[in-house]
Design goal:
Blueprint lengths: L2 H14 L3 E6 L17 E7 L8 H11 L1 H4 L5 E7 L6
Parallel strand pairs: 2-3
Antiparallel strand pairs: 1-2
Length: 91
């Protein structure tokens, strides 16, 4: 995997100690679209399950993840599809 993928994975693990974390580089599906880069790593799908999200609204969950990934979202990542769950919530 690439450096941006690794940074996303590392930062989310460090910030949330998730019980489940799936990071998928979906950039190949966006070739030729706005924000797509020739080397990929511009579009990601993330599914994260962590106790930190228990009792927290979807909007707050998104803000927490976006804060953890602020550097990536300010630059190389053009799009992030996010599903943030508390343990026991369905995917």
């Amino acid at each position: 995997m690439g450096a941006i993928f690794e940074a996303i994975h590392h930062k989310l693990n460090a910030a949330f100690s998730p019980t489940r974390l799936e990071v998928v580089d979906d950039s190949d599906r966006h070739a030729g679209h706005a924000g797509a880069t020739p080397g990929g790593e511009s579009h990601f799908n993330v599914l994260i399950e962590a106790a930190a999200f228990a009792g927290v609204s979807k909007v707050v969950r998104q803000r927490l993840v976006y804060k953890a990934l602020a550097d990536e979202l300010a630059g190389p990542v053009h799009a992030l599809s996010l599903k943030a769950l508390a343990p026991g919530e369905g995917a």
